[in-house]
Amino acid sequence: MAEKTRYSDDELAEFDKLIDGKLSKANQELQYYLAQIRELAENDGTKLKGLDDGTGTLESSRLQQMAARQRKLVQHLENAKMRIANKVYGICRDTGKLISKERLKAVPHATLSITAKQNQIKGK
Question: Can you tell me the distance from the alpha carbon of 58 to that of 64, in angstroms, rounded to the nearest whole number?
Answer without folding.
Answer: 10
